[in-house]
């Protein structure tokens, strides 16, 4: 069984924020796979199941995501965990993935690392870094622009494809198949 976690913040206030791109991917996977809601209070999030997939949206807010992930991990003991998250250091429209590594300052990953360790697969969805370092919080908690919406749709669809490939193959094989430094939204 594979646990796929999309990081974000609950409530409609944050629904379309850049920080919630992980939730957006989970929502599409739930719809595409007619996943069944199996949420229970101890999981501290929305949990869905479809065949051998568990799809989780932690409702602990980003900085405490590890509480939800560790609760589901302890209960189901999945063979694989994949975390989908926004990535400031990757350009918008670019998708990267890896196994393990540091949290790179991402508070959601920091929390997960503290609860279950860092040995899990990561699907990193680029949101680009703002021009000024002091604008990071504002940037991640702002919605994608109207101009970014067509690209966002492509990124979410591609992320769903990649994450499903990760459930049946290793990261290195998937990197050979999907690796690109180019944005999925470049039209050239």
Detail the poorly predicted runs.
none
CATH class: Alpha Beta
Residue share in β-strands: 15-25%
Helix/sheet category: alpha/beta
Layout of helices and strands:
Elements: E1 2-6, H1 21-32, E2 36-37, E3 45-50, E4 53-58, H2 65-76, E5 80-87, E6 95-99, H3 107-116, E7 121-126, H4 136-140, H5 149-166, H6 171-178
Parallel strand pairs: 1-4, 1-5, 5-7
Antiparallel strand pairs: 2-3, 3-4, 6-7
Helix pairs in contact: 1-5, 2-3
Keywords:
Rossmann fold; alpha/beta; 6 helices; seven-stranded mixed β-sheet
The gist of it:
The protein is of the alpha/beta class.
Structure description:
The protein is an alpha/beta fold and 188 residues long. It has one domain (2-178): Rossmann fold. The chain has helices at residues 21-32, 65-76, 107-116, 136-140, 149-166, 171-178, and strands at 2-6, 36-37, 45-50, 53-58, 80-87, 95-99, 121-126. The longest helix is centred in the last third of the chain and has 18 residues, at 149-166. The protein is globular, with a radius of gyration of 15 Å.
């Amino acid at each position: 069984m594979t646990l796929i976690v999309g990081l974000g913040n609950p409530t409609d206030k944050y629904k379309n924020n850049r920080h919630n791109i992980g939730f957006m991917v989970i929502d599409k996977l739930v719809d595409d796979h007619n996943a069944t809601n199996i949420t229970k209070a101890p999981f501290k999030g929305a949990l869905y199941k479809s065949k051998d997939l568990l799809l989780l949206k932690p409702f602990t807010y980003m900085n405490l995501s590890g509480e939800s992930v560790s609760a589901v991990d302890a209960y189901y003991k999945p063979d694989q965990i994949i975390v989908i998250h926004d990535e400031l250091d990757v350009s918008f429209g670019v998708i990267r993935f890896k196994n393990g590594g540091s949290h790179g300052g991402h508070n959601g990953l920091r929390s997960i690392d503290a609860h279950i360790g860092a040995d899990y697969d990561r699907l990193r969805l680029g949101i680009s870094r703002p021009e000024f370092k002091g604008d990071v919080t504002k940037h991640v908690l702002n919605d994608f622009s109207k101009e970014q919406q067509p690209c966002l749709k492509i990124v979410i669809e591609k992320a769903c494809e990649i994450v499903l490939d990760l459930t049946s193959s290793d990261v290195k094989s998937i990197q050979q198949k999907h690796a690109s430094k180019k944005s999925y939204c470049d039209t050239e």
